[in-house]
C-alpha cells in the first residue's frame, strides 16, 4: 500500500523524510518514538491521502479540526493528535498550508526544510560571531553604572588590559563550577579585582545557545531569499520572531548568575554568585544592563546608584578601604587606584568617586589639601572673613564693603582697623556693611563659642582713583590731576614711563596739539597708572589709536538702559570678542526682580547671555532688562569707537585706556 501511494503520488521524498522509512528516522516516526504512540504517523498518513487529488479546483488538505474529526475515537483524546501534528508541522520538510489554514503535503520543500538546511550549513565562526553580537546587544552598557564595557565569550588572556582600565562585564560559558574554573584563575591573578563582573551560569548546555543561534542565522539568510510578496513571507516573519524569542530565553536560562567581587573580614577575596534578577516589564524591550543593575542593587548590595542619598555608608567603606592603614591623608590618585583593587568596596556610577569627594569636602568631613592629597580628618577650621567691594571707589576714594565672617560660630566678633594694625581691642563691626576711604582695612574675626580657632588677620586694599580736569583760559589749556583717597602723582607728556615722570604739584599746561598724558600715582604701596588723551585744540572727542588694544572704563558704570539696548550691546560685544569686568545685570521690576553681579573677572558676551537666558525663563517676555559695566576690553581702538558709536556712548577724556 505504501509503495502504491508512493508510485501514484510521486512523493517518494515526502514519505521517506516526513512519514516513514526503514531506519525509523522519518519525522513522524521520531515523534512517535518519543511519545510512545502512533498519533504523528496516523495524522501524517491522513494528511498525505488528503493531498493526492489532481482534479480541477480540488480542495486539497485538511484543517486541524478535520484531522481530529477523522481520527478521534472513544479511546483517543483530540489533544493527542493536535500535539503530534504541531510537532510534525514544526519538523516536517514538505507540509504546507493555505491562507485559509488547510494543511497538505507537496513535493516542494517547505520553509522548515530551507531553514534547517541553512542552520545546519551555517559556518561555525559566523555562528560564534552572531552569539557574541547578540550578547553584546542584550547587555550593552548605556548608563555604565554597573559596568563600562561588555565582553561576550572572550579569551580571558586577551581581556586583562581592559579589566585593568575599566569595570567590565565578562559573559563566560558556564561549566559545572561557580565561578567557572578559568574565571577563578583569572580573578586570582588580577590586581584590579574590583573591576570584574561576570555573567555565567551553572548549566553546561552551551550547545543549546549555538542551536538557537543557528536558527537566528538561518532566518537572517532566508530573509534575503524570500521576497516580500512570496506566499511563505508571513510564515518566515513569524519564524524570525519565534527564533529571536527562543534565543533570548535560551540565553537567559543559561546565563543566569552574576558574579561580583567581595571580601569578608579575615577571608580571601572571592567572586560571589547571585541569581540574575529577571523581574521586568515584559511589554518593553529586554535591557540586560538594567537587569544586572537590579541584581547588584538588592541585598547583598554591591552597587550604589545615588552617591548623595547613600553618602554615609559609601563614605564609611571608602575610609576603611581606600586610605592607607593608620593614615588620615592619601593621594587621591592612589585612592582611585585602590577603588579598582579592593573587592570589598561597593561600585559607584560614573564619576561617583569624585562626587563622593565633592560632597564630603562640601560638608567639611574631608578636605582637599590642594597638593593632590585628601584628608579624611580635616584640621579644625580657623576664623576668617570674606570682604566684597560692592562699589567702585568714588571721587573721594570711598568704597562700600560687605563683610561676611567665615568659620566663626553663631555670634562672631569682627574687629577692624583702618590704615592701622587690628587686635581684639580694635573697634568691632556692628553691621555687615562698612563704608571706608582708607587705603587698607585690617580685619580680625573671633569666635566666642570656641568652636573655631582665631585665624589670621585679613587685609583689604583699596584702589587709587586717578581723575583729570581739562580747562581752557586765556587761550591756554591746562590739566588738573587728582588722586583719591590720597597719594603722590607723577606724569609725562611724551609717552615715557610715568613712574619716573615729573612730580605733579599744580595744573599742567599741555599746548594746542593732541596730547597723551601718562599718569602714575602711589600711596603706601598702592599704585595706579593710566593715560589721558586730549585731541588738538578746537577738536572734540577723545584721541583713540585705531590699531592698539583699548579699554573703555567708567568709575560709575556704562549703562545699557533697556532690554533692546542690552541685547544689542551683547550682540556687538560678541561680534568684536569684547570682554567685560564689573558687570551688573538687572531683570524685572519692583519685588519681582533678579540681579546678578560679576566683579573683577573677565567674562564675554556668551557667558552673560547664558545667565540671562536661564534667568529670563522665570519672567514674562517683555520684562525690563538693564546692564551696567565698568570696564570693557577691545582688541583695537577701532572696535571700541565702533561699539561706542552704535550704542550711543559719548567718549570723554579718561574713558579710554590704551
Note the topology.
Elements: H1 2-9, H2 12-19, H3 27-35, H4 39-49, H5 64-71, H6 78-91, E1 95-97, E2 103-105, H7 111-121, H8 124-138, E3 149-152, H9 160-165, E4 168-171, H10 181-188, E5 196-200, H11 206-225, H12 233-254, E6 257-262, E7 270-275, H13 288-297, H14 311-321, E8 329-331, H15 332-341, H16 352-362, E9 367-368, E10 373-375, E11 384-389, E12 399-406, E13 413-418, E14 427-428, E15 433-436, E16 440-446, E17 458-461, E18 465-473, E19 476-484, E20 488-492, E21 502-503, E22 508-509, E23 515-523, E24 526-534, E25 550-560, H17 563-575, E26 579-589, E27 592-598, E28 603-604, H18 605-616, E29 625-634, H19 637-647, E30 656-657
Parallel strand pairs: 3-4, 4-5
Antiparallel strand pairs: 1-2, 5-6, 6-7, 8-10, 9-10, 11-12, 12-15, 13-14, 13-16, 16-17, 18-19, 19-22, 20-21, 20-23, 23-24, 25-29, 25-30, 26-27, 26-28, 26-29
Describe the structure.
The chain is an alpha+beta fold and 658 residues long. Helix content is 33%, strand content 25%. The strands form eight sheets. Strands 25, 26, 27, 28, 29 and 30 form a six-stranded antiparallel β-sheet that branches. Helix 3 packs across helix 6 (78-91). The mean pLDDT is 91.
Amino acid at each position: 500500500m505504501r509503495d502504491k501511494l508512493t508510485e501514484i503520488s510521486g512523493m517518494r521524498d515526502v514519505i521517506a523524510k516526513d512519514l516513514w522509512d526503514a531506519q525509523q528516522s522519518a519525522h513522524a516516526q521520531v515523534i512517535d518514538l518519543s511519545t510512545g504512540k502512533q498519533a504523528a504517523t496516523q495524522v501524517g498518513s491522513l494528511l498525505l491521502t488528503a493531498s493526492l487529488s489532481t482534479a480541477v479546483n480540488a480542495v486539497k488538505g485538511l484543517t486541524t479540526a478535520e484531522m481530529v474529526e477523522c481520527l478521534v475515537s472513544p479511546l483517543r483524546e483530540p489533544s493527542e493528535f493536535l500535539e503530534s501534528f504541531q510537532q510534525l508541522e514544526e519538523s516536517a520538510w514538505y507540509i504546507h498550508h493555505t491562507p485559509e489554514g488547510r494543511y497538505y503535503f507537496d513535493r516542494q520543500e517547505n520553509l522548515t526544510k530551507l531553514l534547517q538546511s541553512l542552520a545546519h550549513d551555517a559556518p561555525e565562526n559566523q555562528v560564534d560571531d552572531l552569539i557574541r553580537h547578540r550578547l553584546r546587544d542584550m547587555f550593552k552598557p548605556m548608563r555604565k553604572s554597573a559596568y563600562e564595557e561588555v565582553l561576550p565569550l572572550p579569551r580571558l588572556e586577551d581581556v586583562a588590559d581592559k579589566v585593568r582600565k575599566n569595570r567590565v562585564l565578562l559573559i563566560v560559558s558556564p561549566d559545572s563550577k561557580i565561578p567557572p574554573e578559568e574565571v577563578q584563575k583569572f580573578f586570582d591573578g588580577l590586581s584590579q579585582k574590583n573591576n570584574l563582573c561576570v555573567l555565567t551560569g551553572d548549566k553546561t548546555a552551551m550547545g543549546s545557545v549555538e542551536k538557537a543561534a543557528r536558527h537566528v542565522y538561518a532566518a537572517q539568510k532566508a530573509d534575503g531569499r524570500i521576497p516580500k510578496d512570496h506566499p511563505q513571507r508571513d510564515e518566515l516573519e513569524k519564524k524570525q520572531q519565534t527564533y529571536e524569542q527562543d534565543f533570548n530565553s535560551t540565553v537567559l536560562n543559561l546565563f543566569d548568575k552574576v558574579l561580583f567581587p567581595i571580601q569578608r573580614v579575615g577571608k580571601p577575596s572571592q567572586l560571589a554568585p547571585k541569581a540574575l534578577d529577571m523581574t521586568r516589564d515584559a511589554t518593553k524591550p529586554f535591557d540586560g544592563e538594567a537587569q544586572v543593575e537590579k541584581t547588584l542593587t538588592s541585598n547583598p548590595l554591591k552597587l550604589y546608584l545615588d552617591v548623595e542619598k547613600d553618602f554615609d555608608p559609601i563614605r564609611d567603606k571608602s575610609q576603611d578601604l581606600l586610605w592607607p592603614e593608620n593614615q588620615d591623608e592619601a593621594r587621591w590618585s592612589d585612592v582611585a587606584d585602590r577603588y579598582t583593587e579592593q573587592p570589598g568596596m561597593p561600585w559607584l556610577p560614573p564619576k561617583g568617586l569624585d562626587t563622593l569627594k565633592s560632597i564630603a569636602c562640601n560638608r567639611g568631613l574631608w578636605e582637599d589639601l590642594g597638593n593632590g592629597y585628601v584628608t579624611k580628618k580635616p584640621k579644625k577650621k580657623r576664623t576668617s572673613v570674606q570682604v566684597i567691594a560692592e562699589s567702585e571707589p568714588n571721587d573721594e576714594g570711598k568704597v562700600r564693603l560687605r563683610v561676611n565672617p567665615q568659620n566663626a560660630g553663631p555670634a562672631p566678633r569682627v574687629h577692624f582697623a583702618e590704615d592701622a594694625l587690628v587686635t581684639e581691642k580694635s573697634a568691632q563691626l556692628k553691621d555687615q556693611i562698612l563704608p571706608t576711604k582708607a587705603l587698607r582695612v585690617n580685619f580680625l574675626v573671633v569666635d566666642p563659642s570656641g568652636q573655631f580657632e582665631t585665624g589670621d588677620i585679613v587685609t583689604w586694599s583699596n584702589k587709587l582713583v586717578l581723575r583729570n580736569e581739562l580747562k581752557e583760559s586765556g587761550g591756554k589749556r591746562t590739566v588738573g590731576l587728582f588722586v583719591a583717597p590720597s597719594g603722590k602723582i607723577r606724569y609725562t607728556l611724551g609717552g615715557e614711563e610715568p613712574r619716573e615722570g615729573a612730580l605733579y604739584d599744580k595744573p599742567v599746561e599741555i599746548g594746542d596739539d593732541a596730547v597723551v598724558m601718562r599718569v602714575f600715582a602711589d600711596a603706601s604701596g598702592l599704585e595706579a597708572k593710566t593715560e589721558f588723551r586730549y585731541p588738538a585744540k578746537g577738536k572734540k572727542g577723545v584721541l583713540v589709536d585705531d590699531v592698539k588694544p583699548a579699554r573703555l572704563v567708567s568709575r560709575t558704570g556704562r549703562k545699557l538702559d533697556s532690554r533692546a539696548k542690552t541685547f544689542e550691546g551683547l550682540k556687538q560685544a560678541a561680534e568684536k570678542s569684547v570682554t567685560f569686568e564689573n558687570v551688573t545685570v538687572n531683570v524685572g521690576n519692583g519685588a519681582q526682580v533678579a540681579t546678578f553681579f560679576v566683579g573683577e573677572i573677565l567674562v564675554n558676551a556668551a557667558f552673560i547671555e547664558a545667565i540671562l537666558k536661564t534667568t529670563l525663563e522665570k519672567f514674562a517676555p517683555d520684562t525690563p532688562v538693564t546692564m551696567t559695566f565698568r570696564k570693557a576690553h577691545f582688541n583695537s581702538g577701532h572696535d571700541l569707537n565702533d561699539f561706542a558709536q552704535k550704542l550711543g556712548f559719548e567718549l570723554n577724556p579718561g574713558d579710554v585706556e590704551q
